[in-house]
Amino acid sequence: MNGELKKWEGQTAEVLSTISISEDYKPTLLGSVPNMDAESANEVLLSACDAFGKGKGAWPTMKVSDRISCMEKFVEQMKTKRDEVVKLLMWEIGKNLPDSEKEFDRTVEYIYDTIEDYKQLDRDSAKFLNRDGVYAHIRRGPLGVVLCLGPYNYPLNETFALLIPALIMGNTAIFKPAKHGVLLITPLMEAFRNSFPRGVVNIIFGRGREVAAPIMQSGRIDVLALIGNSKSAIALQDQHPNKNRLRLVLGLEAKNPAIILPDADLDLAVEECINGTLSFNGQRCTALKIVYVHEDIREEFNKRFAAKVDALKLGNPWEAGVKLTPLPEPDKPTYIQGLIDDAKEKGAEILNKKGGETTDNYIFPAVLYPVTEEMRVYKEEQFGPVIPVKLFNDIDQILDELALSNYGQQVSLFGKDVYELSPLIDTLVNLVCRVNLNSSCQRGPDVFPFTGRKDSAVGTLSVHDALRSFSIRTFVATKDNASNKEILEKLLETKVSNFISTDYIL
Ligand SMILES: O=C[C@H](O)COP(=O)(O)O
């Protein structure tokens, strides 16, 4: 972005749209981005390192109020690009219109919330301490250079959920857009260029192993911030010559269950499970990826749920009322078909009539029942349109499975009896990080903590927590005597230091 894009002309990577379910479907060339190599990626790295300048750069030492002004300028310009970005969200990743609009609007809100929270954080963390003859002025500061990688399912929102807090805290950043959802970043590049000093925000395009790996190998990355899968996170981490000094901020996989207790409101449970399992075709880390149904209500729940799934409208993302849309990953339908075949071989049935029907780059969601622990669809994070339903008689059976699971993000719990719910809630909050009562799992509102246990996350990504994840407490200390007092008073009075200042009182 602050590097010269022209440099990479002639090595462009084409971006094809696969988003169409029409019979005469043909992939359409939407645009192209530079396909960078290791050398170009290293130039970008140098640009980010120079801008941080081992702390001497203009950005990390800048006044808080000036950094906020840059961010405000950026978000104002970003808002003028809404239509363009929303269209690209539909065309590149197949997200339906309401969800694409929501992704854009929620990202704008995330930036405003981050600005407000940053002011509060700076006010709260700035402290003058005087103890045992030592006087200290404490504030929160940046960590250095951050490498941010976002996922294809939220190419705008989740990339920015990493990038924005990292930047406002005074870090410089390099970000790599997801493979699908790369073009939608391009309308925003001018806004970045107009709003931030050179080298503060940097972009890399290309394959992870070709552009992100060499950057990590340099040992100059201080924070790896990634939302995606553990495999990519581990592969990148392993490239760093000194992993111990790398701070990690990771949002990873999950296998969030819905638990339908015998006294659950079935209409509500069905509705919430439809949204939970199939919003954006189940391509959400917070999606419900398995449904546990109690034996007493199994028949009724399965019947209503399967019928509702079949009634969902499949179509192109821009068509009104469409819930199910084409999948951006060309090999996803084959993968899902493999899960269905495996489950059928091991004794499951498809409960809904349309389950497994394929249309170009889509496979209609199959509701699979009864699912058992030997099946791949039980073990793998399907991240797509297929719904395993598992029977239970005894809640302890589910608690044992959750305790053994590699994941620990969220649970949806459906029921009414408070005496049954309360011990369960008390246990579940120690197995996952968010229990959704009579509602499906979700990340939002984005001011709420977004995290997980075990392999689901490292650190917490909410407006509030992300600012802390991308910063460290730093301070200036001195012996409390008359001469030092005088120097400190002068520093405050002359306003020559941005650190020893009262700029935090915004
Ligand atoms: O892919 C994981 C996302 O953070 C899910 O967000 P969401 O629950 O708002 O769809």
How would you characterize this protein structure?
Helix 1 (38-52) packs across helix 8, helix 8 packs across helix 9 (230-239) and helix 10 (266-278) crosses helix 11. 40% of the residues lie in helices and 20% in strands. The chain is α/β, with parallel strands linked by helices. The strands form six sheets. Strands 12-15-16-11-10-18-19 form a seven-stranded mixed beta sheet, sandwiched between helices. Bound molecules: glyceraldehyde-3-phosphate. GO terms for molecular function: oxidoreductase activity, acting on the aldehyde or oxo group of donors, NAD or NADP as acceptor. InterPro entries: Ald_DH/histidinol_DH, Ald_DH_C, Ald_DH_CS_CYS, Ald_DH_N, Aldehyde_DH_dom, Aldehyde_DH_Superfamily. Keywords: Oxidoreductase. Pfam families: Aldedh.
- SS element count, helices: 17
Number of E-state strands: 22
Side-by-side strand order of the widest sheet: 12-15-16-11-10-18-19
Binned strand content: 15-25%
Mind summarizing the main beta sheet? 7 strands, mixed
Q: Assign an overall shape.
A: globular
Show unreliable segments.
Answer: 1-8
Q: Give the termini separation.
A: 30 Å
Rounded to the nearest angstrom, the radius of gyration is 25 Å
Q: Give me the secondary-structure category.
A: alpha/beta
Average residue-wise pLDDT: 94
What features would you highlight for this structure?
7-stranded mixed β-sheet, disordered N terminus, binds glyceraldehyde-3-phosphate, 506 residues, alpha/beta, Ald_DH_CS_CYS, 17 helices, 6-stranded mixed β-sheet, 22 strands
